[in-house]
Design goal:
Blueprint lengths: L1 H19 L5 E4 L5 H9 L4 E4 L19 E3 L2 E2 L1 H14 L4 E7 L4 H8 L12 H5 L2 H22 L3 E7 L16 H13 L10 H4 L15 H28 L5 E5 L10 H4 L5 H5 L6 E5 L17 H6 L3 E6 L25 H17 L3 E5 L9 H17 L10 E5 L1 H4 L13 H8 L6 E5 L13 E5 L6 H10 L6 E5 L14 H6 L14 E3 L6 E7 L7 H10 L12 E3 L3 E6 L3 E16 L4 E14 L3 E7 L1
Parallel strand pairs: 1-2, 1-10, 2-5, 5-6, 6-7, 7-8, 8-9, 9-10, 11-12, 11-13, 13-14, 14-16
Antiparallel strand pairs: 3-4, 15-16, 17-18, 18-21, 19-20, 19-21
């Protein structure tokens, strides 16, 4: 009996652990009611669909939705329009489950109504921060959210797995106010400074935002305090507002539904958008129990065949917070529809050129999501991407591979770590062309070093297992006050790990800028090209271990060949000897190629058996190295036993 009781206790504990794990989704999404495509997805076992009952217009001024607006006026709703968007799918797929987006942006009547009071713009698509600062806008929008959830939960609560709260530019919580203020925002800023015991500084003018003390790139903490404080307010305003709406949604759903948001785009937003769009306080959102997953499209820079894809948010940050990312695959296939109507069309970004490219590209995105332990949905924006038999056959194969491997990926096999730092990002002048944060550029080049890599945030370092990291890259780590520098010494700057610094690291200690700190931090003078002597051993204090440092002044020098050379010197496992992107966990290795032919694949350790997942063929046994004949193009996923 005692043994049985212990077994039951173990099983109960295991069930609790599983229940606490976030859900993983494989889903279809479209702006339009692409019912014929949805039927074909359902026929191959995909029953999770995203619905977006929208009240607003997109960035081209066209309605997002084909259905009538739901929110017609204060406390006035067209619920029949809402019901149709669910019922029409359920009619052809009785097993349908939903991820439901909630449009919190201002309908035109609300923007006009509130804008007439002379307090500024209330179009949240453009001026999100002013709307979030307005008590009346908040009241109206919170009321709509509560009423919307009451309807969806009553009629479809057993089918809805998650709600996605959407607001701001392109519904991705991006603020396009571009450092402008308004009466509502200025009043909110004053309340925030008082609540946080901060100096009551006036909102800076454009000239202050457009310049910076060091090379017009890095802000001086003394001289530019008004800009730094205003930037902090904007970041916290967006994050706190997300959490406020998320808390309301959790309460109205009995905390039974997951909440997702488009957020945390530090690896994609550059120039003024890097800190102007309000995405830098993503760590605060990730730490909350009221948000369960982040969504972001695959990067726009690496979409062509042969490119490496990539996330806009640091995946390790989310996983450490027991959150997941949902990878939005909205890539432009050969059948992708660009025409919104007879007058308006959108340019196809990095469009694929053949059905073979469609298959290889979509499988690349699937493998990236699998190895990142993320969810995935295929975003068929205005239809057309999945109209052929070949496209649906590929979906069926991907779903089979997904089901066989999701939850069984194992830990990341990355030996290269890219470290993003939102605290540094908030101190950069994005209006200076040379000051663009280089996280995206370094990420894109790492796609082509023949090895997988992971991305975290600076504050994650004490929480991470860094034992597998052989090369750490810190682009633009300007902000290193004593406590952050000490943490760095205790985490990354230990053992024989190689650290690659990009830019004047450590220049800001929280009180003033000093170029001499670059040598104190990296062991190399600012401006020295230290790419060649990467194996030089430096010392950081007494008895604190050895570390190898490479510090550079210009990120343009850090191209993919240079990064590959540094990775080799650091002892990173080189899976392939060319620029083909690689994603890997302990159990899965994916390689994406543009050109066909044989390639040698090198693994970190010997595998008993290697099976290519899409074909099901065993390609090697008892091997640490093996050769695989790639088609042109192809994404192969190798399962290691």
């Amino acid at each position: 009996m005692k043994r049985l009781a212990l077994l039951l206790l173990f099983l109960t504990a295991a069930a609790c652990v599983r229940a606490a794990e976030p859900n993983v989704y494989f889903a279809y999404r479209s702006f339009w009611p692409e019912h014929e495509t949805m039927k074909r997805f359902a026929a191959v076992g995909v029953h999770t669909f995203c619905v977006f009952p929208s009240n607003t217009e997109n960035s081209l001024g066209e309605p997002y939705s084909k259905y009538p607006r739901i929110w017609r006026y204060p406390d006035t709703y067209d619920w029949d329009s809402l019901y149709r968007q669910f019922d029409e799918i359920i009619a052809f797929d009785p097993d349908a489950e939903f991820l439901c987006m909630v449009d919190l942006n201002s309908p035109i009547w609300l923007a006009r109504m509130l804008g007439m009071n002379g307090d500024g713009s209330f179009d949240s698509f453009i001026d999100l921060s002013s709307c979030l600062s307005s008590p009346e806008w908040r009241r109206q929008t919170e009321k709509y959210l509560a009423d919307f959830l009451a309807q969806t939960e009553e009629r479809y609560g057993d089918r809805i797995k998650a709600y996605i709260l959407a607001c701001g530019q392109t519904d991705e919580w991006m603020d396009y106010s571009a450092e402008r203020t308004s009466r509502a925002k200025t009043a909110a800023y004053k309340r925030w400074t008082e609540a946080n015991g901060l100096e009551p500084l006036a909102w800076p003018d454009f000239a202050a935002f457009d310049s910076a003390a060091f090379e017009n790139r890095v802000r001086d903490p003394k001289k530019e305090k008004p800009v730094l404080q205003a930037t902090q307010f904007e970041q916290e305003l967006i994050a706190d507002s997300i959490l406020s709406f998320a808390k309301l949604a959790k309460e109205k759903t009995g905390r039974a539904k997951e909440i997702g948001v488009f957020f945390g785009y530090i690896l994609e937003l550059t120039h003024w958008r890097a800190n102007g769009c309000g995405h830098l306080a993503y760590e605060k959102v990730a730490a909350s129990d009221d948000v369960d997953f982040f969504i972001s499209p695959g990067t726009y820079a690496e979409r062509l065949i042969g490119g490496g894809s990539g996330s806009m948010a640091p995946n390790e940050t989310l996983l450490l917070a027991n959150k997941r990312r949902l990878h939005e695959t909205d890539h432009r296939t050969t059948g992708y529809n660009c025409a919104l109507n007879e007058f308006v069309s959108i340019a196809p970004i990095s469009r694929w050129q053949s059905e073979a490219e469609d298959v290889a590209g979509l499988r690349r995105e699937l493998c990236f999501a699998l190895t990142d332990r993320a969810s995935i949905w295929f975003f068929d924006m205005w239809g057309g991407s999945f109209t052929t038999d070949a496209a649906i056959e590929n979906v069926a194969v991907m779903k089979r591979v997904w089901d066989a491997n999701v939850g069984r990926q194992g830990k990341s096999a990355a030996e290269v770590l890219l470290v993003a730092d939102p605290q540094t990002a908030a101190r950069v002048n994005g209006r200076e062309p040379k000051s663009a944060l280089v996280y995206a550029a370094i990420r894109n080049r790492l796609d082509h070093i023949g090895a997988p890599f992971a991305v975290c945030s600076f504050n994650d370092l004490p929480k991470m297992d860094l034992s597998n990291v052989k090369l750490a890259i810190l682009p633009g780590s300007f902000y290193l006050p004593p406590e952050r520098a000490a943490m760095l010494r205790e985490t990354l700057l230990t053992g024989e790990r190689t650290v690659l610094w990009v830019g004047p690291a450590g220049i800001d200690d929280g009180n003033a800028l000093d170029l001499a700190r670059v040598r104190e931090t990296t062991g190399v003078e600012y401006g020295a090209d230290a790419l060649e002597p990467v194996a030089r051993v430096g010392f950081f204090g007494e008895g604190n271990g050895q570390w190898r440092s490479a510090a550079i002044a210009d990120h343009a020098k850090v191209d993919a060949p240079a990064l590959r050379k540094i990775a080799r010197a650091a002892g990173v496992t080189e899976y392939v000897a060319d620029e083909s992107p690689v994603y890997a966990t302990e159990r899965l290795v994916a390689v994406h190629v543009k050109t066909g032919g044989p390639r040698k694949i090198t693994l970190p350790k010997q595998a008993k058996r290697v099976t290519e997942a899409f074909s099901g063929k065993v390609v090697a046994e008892n091997a640490k190295e093996f050769e695989y004949e790639f088609a042109e193009p192809e994404t192969a996923l190798f399962v290691l036993e």
